[in-house]
Automatic annotation (TrEMBL):
InterPro entries: DUF2975. This is DUF2975 domain-containing protein. The chain crosses the membrane at residues 12-34, 66-90, 111-131, 137-156. Keywords: Membrane, Transmembrane, Transmembrane helix.
Length: 170
């Protein structure tokens, strides 16, 4: 179990850093689109570049139209949330007691997020921007991840029940 805790701590840090990176990208993008700071739009008004702060080196690139901008910000925000929830799941595996109400809650948040949010985001984005087949693959992967995590949460609930019964016997 010590190996699992060690790996979970490393993965916690990595996923929290990923959440921070996506979150900062979201904030920088929203600030750039709202104020024009660190934003360059080409002459045809068809492509944008968001620069690293205080430089002219491109950081993020994309199409410059309202539908794409909405999709772009929504996806950055959603993956910020995704990696934050993943990091919270990894905290479950760093605990000395594995089956706890806290752990079950983290797994529930994660599977609900993976089952509901990708579909909701896809519907919202499809209202303003045409979507391709890669989106269907991502939704399927999130759905599978959600189902797998649901099973894991049910196993943890059973483990908590057995653990509590065992504690009552002793």
């Amino acid at each position: 179990m010590a190996t699992v805790r060690f790996i979970s701590r490393i993965l916690f840090v990595l996923t929290r850093l990923a959440a921070l990176g996506y979150g900062l990208s979201f904030v920088l993008s929203a600030l750039a689109f709202a104020t024009g700071w660190s934003l360059h739009v080409n002459e045809q008004q068809s492509r944008f570049e968001i620069y690293y702060p205080f430089t002219t080196k491109p950081y993020l690139l994309g199409e410059y139209n309202p539908g794409y901008l909405c999709m772009f910000l929504l996806l950055l925000g959603m993956y910020t949330l995704f990696f934050y929830l993943v990091s919270r799941v990894f905290t479950v595996f760093t605990q000395t007691r594995l089956f706890t109400p806290y752990g079950i809650r983290q797994l529930q948040w994660f599977y609900r997020g993976n089952l509901l949010l990708p579909t909701l985001v896809t519907v919202l984005i499809s209202l303003v921007y045409p979507l391709g087949s890669p989106v269907e693959v991502l939704i399927s992967l999130h759905f599978l991840l959600g189902v797998f995590t649901y099973f894991l949460a049910v196993i943890f609930q059973q483990g908590l029940t057995l653990q509590n019964e065992q504690d009552l016997i002793i």
